[in-house]
Write a structure and sequence with these properties.
An 8-stranded mixed β-sheet has the order 4-3-5-6-7-8-9-10, with helices on both faces. The chain has a 6-stranded mixed β-sheet with strand order 12-11-13-18-15-16, with helices on both faces. The chain is globular and about 65 Å long. The chain folds into 2 domains: 12-204, Fructose-1,6-Bisphosphatase, Chain A, domain 1 (2-Layer Sandwich); 215-333, D-Maltodextrin-Binding Protein, domain 2. It has 8 helices and 18 strands. With 334 residues, the protein is an alpha+beta fold. Helix 5 links the parallel strand 11 and strand 12 (243-244). 29% of the residues lie in helices and 25% in strands. The chain has helices at 18-27, 35-55, 57-60, 78-92, 228-239, 250-260, 279-292, 323-333; strands at 65-69, 75-77, 97-102, 109-110, 120-128, 139-147, 168-174, 178-183, 188-194, 199-204, 215-217, 243-244, 263-266, 277-278, 296-299, 302-303, 315-316, 318-321. The chain binds 2,5-anhydro-1,6-di-O-phosphono-D-glucitol and manganese (II) ion (2 copies). One manganese (II) ion (MN) binds at residues 125, 128, 250, 282. The site of one manganese (II) ion (MN) has 6 residues, from strand 5.
Length: 334
């Protein structure tokens, strides 16, 4: 008897959890030690907890501002702090991690200096678009995993690596459903949290971004302060039947672009001449996902993942999305 024939009641029920997926992937690598899987499983646990706290935020009275600022001089929301502490708690105790670094902490957290036993670094934006929470809008978590270079001196410098060095990247969108999008450099996988069993279940093993879609996502209110090339692009798009969508949370905007196609832009502005978004834990992980799904990601006219980082919290401009749409933007920037 075949396995399928023995399951008449279950039919096509999806029971491939992220844990099973990661263990099956680990099995394909004979020398894998399990540490990498263990780190991703900490991210899965932390983001399930953050999803639950976001869902109950109004009930628990944790909406709104903390009354403090983070290292970027930006107002911290209460949930920025809760999400950050959750990720630090879950990742901080996992063997395999040498350093964790977060948008909310000025300095990277050194977990150990013995690079031999701890080959990885995790960087994250614990809560992206956090001010959207007050209005029940989409928010997210973004993460990037790098190899630890234990020759770095001082050790903090080990985090400053180009995006091309990422060995995994992903994000979790806390929306009407909680979606985890992951790449380990072999395509993009998408999981959705089934709250009734508390597991992320695989819903798409090979996500591909559409090649083109007449849609852009940008804070158009800043148009007058964008460099000329971006203004030229917008005026071309207005004349060519484009539509515009902007959630104000990078995770929500990029997820829509990944699913439907189009282009996401955060250009330099007078207020943020290098762009607003952070290279190492916003732009790079999103760039890896978009490229792995068949799209493109640029900072100005340079491929984002080739930018040499000078500082952990460095900002960058961003143009990413469908291959054809990014090409059109770039042709206006040249
Ligand atoms: P964060 O909440 O992590 O600081 O990120 C906010 C970012 C990003 O999510 C979004 O794309 C962008 O800020 C929106 O900025 P504007 O309000 O300037 O459009
Ligand atoms: Mn962010
Ligand atoms: Mn954030």
């Amino acid at each position: 008897m075949k396995l399928e024939d023995a399951l008449p009641q279950l039919g096509q029920e999806n029971l491939l959890s992220i844990q099973s997926y990661l263990l099956a992937e680990e099995d394909k690598h004979p020398h894998a030690t399990g540490r990498f899987t263990w780190i991703l499983s900490a991210i899965s646990l932390a983001t399930k907890y953050i999803a639950a706290r976001c869902r109950r935020a109004r009930i628990e009275d944790v909406l709104g501002a903390m009354g403090s600022e983070n290292v970027q001089g930006e107002e911290q929301q209460k949930l920025d702090v809760i999400a950050n502490e959750t990720l630090l708690a879950c990742l901080g105790k996992r063997a395999g991690l040498a350093i964790v670094a977060s948008e909310e902490n000025e300095e990277p957290l050194i977990l150990s200096c013995d690079g031999q036993e701890r080959p990885y670094i995790a960087l994250f934006d614990p809560l992206d678009g956090s001010s959207n929470l007050d209005t029940c809008g989409g928010v997210g978590t973004i993460f990037s995993i790098l190899h630890h270079d234990r020759r770095a001196d001082p050790i903090e410098n080990a985090v400053r690596q180009k995006g091309v060095n990422q060995i995994a990247a992903g994000y979790v969108l806390y929306g009407p459903s909680t979606v985890l999008v992951l790449t380990t450099g072999r395509g993009v996988q998408m999981f959705v949290l089934d709250p009734s069993i508390g597991s992320f279940l695989l819903v798409d093993a090979d996500v591909r971004i559409p090649q083109a879609n007449k849609s852009y996502s940008i804070n158009e209110a800043y148009t007058n302060s964008f460099p000329e090339g971006y203004r030229k692009y917008l005026s071309w798009a207005h004349d060519n039947g484009y539509s515009s969508r902007y959630a104000g949370a990078m995770v929500a905007d990029v997820h829509r672009i990944l699913m439907k196609g189009g282009v996401f832009l955060y250009p330099p502005t007078e207020k943020a001449p290098n762009g607003k978004l952070r290279l190492m834990y916003e732009a790079n992980p999103m760039a890896m996902i978009i490229e792995q799904a068949g799209g493109k990601a640029y900072s100005g006219t340079m491929r984002t993942m080739e930018v040499e980082p000078e500082a952990l919290h460095q900002r960058t401009s961003v143009v990413l999305g469908s291959s054809d749409e990014v090409d059109i933007v770039l042709s206006n920037l040249a």
